[in-house]
Amino acid sequence: MSFRSAVITFPGSNCDRDMADALEKVSGTAPHRVWHGDAALPDGLDFIALPGGFSYGDYLRSGAMAARSPIMQAVIAAAGKGVPVLGVCNGFQVLTEAGLLPGALMRNAGIRFVCREVKLKVENTQSLFTAGYSAGQEITIPVAHHDGNYFADAEALDRLEGEGRVAFRYAEPVNGSARDIAGVLNAAGNVLGMMPHPERVIEPAHGGTDGRALFESAVRGLVGA
Amino acid sequence: MKVRVFVSLKNGVLDPQGRAIHHAIEGLGIHSVQDVRAGKMIELEVDASVTDAQLEEMAAKLLTNTVIENYRIERVQP
Q: Which domains does chain A possess?
């Protein structure tokens, strides 16, 4: 059975090709490429990815304009039906702005753009996206962002932690994120947003392969090995 | 007519930009500033028929992210 996925491209997305390449390399099937102005998604999708970049030039707030673009109504509806949605970097910002994930991504506490490899701790290994990692595993994934400082109020953070919805945590402070949160899941577990870029480390030529297990576990979980 | 929407960060939300501005003010040799919070002002040119409910909707659904920001709407008298 082939893996039917879609990568959404917004004006200003710049990691959509990398995301599509990672999905194709791991699943063996090229994803559909969907434009932000499209009103509908292809039928029968197994997986939707919102890539990194600087949609709409980060105007107003990072991800704010993209979250209100026509295709996002279809993404929100699909997520509500349980279709897995992965948002990386700007994709994570779009998911919070669209209300699919709690919290907000603010300017990095150190003001500077952060572009380097970071160590992450895998906190949740029960989700579709993280089942390929072991609990507490330390992995190395690159980040490249200016607005990655995760904020939510204490009550929301306690709820996320209590429900096991913190998927990844920075092993050391990177951008001022509350409780060093690098990635969170929605309550149903089918939407993951994360600032680090797993699609950039899926084969040895990338300098690392720690992102590959995320795509492998999703493909395995959705269409079998 | 003009409407101005003032957007500010909620209390308790750290403002790295404000902190950097504060640091730069001290670089001017002025040390009488205790704190700086940066926000933004969005000016709309609207029909006189715009309702308060429409302004609220714009401010709450798009112009601000109410997880981290507050807003204040001001109709500017011509």
A: 5-223 (3.40.50.880)
